[in-house]
Amino acid sequence: MHAPAAPEQKRARKRVIDSRPQLLALQAFVLLGFFMLWHVLTATGLLNPFFFATPLGVLERTAKDLATAAFYRHLGITFLETVLAFAIGTVAGIVIGFWFARAPLVSAVFDPYVKAANAVPRVVLAPIFALWLGLGIWSKVALGVSLTFFIVFFNVYQGVKEVSPVILANARMLGMNSRQLLRHVYLPSAMSWVFSSLHTAVGFALVGAVVGEYLGASAGLGYRIAQAEGVFDTVGVFSGMLVLTLFVIVIDSAVSAIESKLLRWRPQTSATVSTH
Amino acid sequence: MAATQAALSLQDVTCTFAGGYTAIDGASLDVAPGEFVSIVGPTGCGKSTFLNVAAGLLQPSSGRVHVFGDELNGLNPHAGYMFQSEALMPWKTARDNVAVGLEVRGTKRADALAQADAWLDRVGLGAFGDRYPHQMSGGMRKRAALAQTLILDPKIVLMDEPFSALDVQTRQLMENELLELWSADRKSVVFITHDLEEAIAMSDRVVILSAGPRARIIGEYKIDLPRPRDVAEIRMTDGFLDLHKAIWADLKDEVLKGYARTSRA
């Protein structure tokens, strides 16, 4: 009743956590196997190292990059774009999601346009944003916002609409006015939906930033990958992808930590007793 | 005269929903200050509709509601409502759930929390203030809901089958606790149940609703059993059995009618 999708996932995750070291070992094994396969295929010449790079080459390049100051400038810019896109998209999604959910006329009028806007492939907007906002960070932020906004918007809208009518009636009987209902009932209910979409939203903010950089920029991880591609430097491309992957893992675990702290009230396992 | 003195007075209330379904038809009920009235009726007879009208959550199609002599317009400010299903906010701890009513009415948070702790103690949840609803059993959640309602000191308490989801033992425990809390400062209680024994054991007066649709009040019985009562023990007394026999004779036909309708559908 409380939140979408999450309970089943949580339950599944809970079951495997019991054997955490085993799980980590298996995961490392998959990674190692992948790199081994890659290494063997490129070392034996089955795959051309020029087109597929070599795992050792990629790791070496990544380690070398991590030791330079210039790399952190690029990383910092991508990080800044991601955070800005995420923050602006989320706040706008929450505010407008609330507005639409609480004003049925507005949502009815704008419904087809919201759906149409969401159906536009955002990549085609990237050159437009670059035209409007220049090649600096803001065109990338705009692209990221156009992606994250809709995810948060739809979740907030749903979260506000799906508040239990009994909880609402009870809150009104307890004496809440509409502002207090917003604070004590609608907002917490909507936040549980927002958080369940947070991983996706952060991911899309990053995609917006990197794709924007890839298509036209002077700095950032996406820019580096585009540069490497321009000179057929496959090692550089794969190294850039590896860094992006690590970056996403770090951000995602930060989101998980925040989520588990803020959604402590949500049942982690199946509920205690049925009520009817 | 009686209407102005009653804590709660429903006159000739009819509720017809969009689509033409009439849940209650011309029901009138006066509840005196400090009186414990139970409304009993077969499943689906519009008992909850009746209570929603008394709470001001539902506007009757016709008829009038007075609260302490004043015509009710909007939510009933003197009423506390304990719902049948889960009404605690799952994102608040038991303590915050109990305190929130005081908070939104302007009590300082620290004071509200202190009073909430006192109420949690009173309903036997003293050690569980930090639990979220999903971490409590059904019985504990009902206790928390009771504290949440009573902490606001409403003059009228509306209860919609509050204990119907509980097992028999927990339920009798809760019924006795409720009677004890009630006898301390005699609020008016409108208690809805489908369980005739529960109604007789707890009330000053039992009102019988007919099977819906178009439910009407078909009988009223004064329960003059001595107080304080123990709901488990009083069921064994002759006075209880006589009342039960008399009321059941009237209720039986309606139950069968309601049953025939639901099994046909």
Report on this model:
Chain A: Residues 75-259 form the ABC transmembrane type-1 domain. Chain A: Keywords: Cell membrane, Membrane, Transmembrane, Transmembrane helix, Transport. Chain A: It is found in: Cell membrane. Chain A: Belongs to the binding-protein-dependent transport system permease family. Chain A: It holds the Pfam family BPD_transp_1. Chain B: Residues 8-236 form the ABC transporter domain. The complex is a heterodimer of chains A (276) and B (265). Chain A is mainly alpha-helical and 276 residues long. Chain A has a single domain (68-262), classed as MetI-like (MetI-like fold, Orthogonal Bundle). Chain A has helices at residues 6-17, 20-43, 49-52, 55-66, 69-102, 104-119, 126-133, 137-161, 165-173, 178-196, 198-215, 221-230, 234-262. Chain A is globular. Chain B has 265 residues and is an alpha/beta fold. Chain B folds into 2 domains: 2-78 and 155-264, Rossmann fold, CATH 3.40.50; 89-153, no CATH class. Helix content of chain B is 40%, strand content 22%. Chain B is built from 9 helices and 10 strands. Chain B has helices at 2-5, 47-55, 94-104, 109-122, 138-150, 168-185, 196-202, 231-234, 238-264; strands at residues 8-16, 22-31, 36-40, 62-67, 70-71, 79-82, 156-160, 188-193, 205-209, 217-222. Chain B has a 6-stranded mixed sheet, sandwiched between helices. Chain B has a 4-stranded antiparallel sheet with strand order 2-1-4-5. In chain B, a hairpin with a 7-residue loop joins strand 9 and strand 10. In chain B, helix 3 crosses helix 4, helix 3 (94-104) packs parallel to helix 5 (138-150) and helix 7 packs antiparallel against helix 9. The radius of gyration of chain B is 18 Å and the shape is globular. The N and C termini of chain B lie far apart (44 Å). The model of chain B has no long low-confidence stretch (mean pLDDT 88). At the A-B interface, helix 9 and helix 10 of A face strand 6 and helix 3 of B.
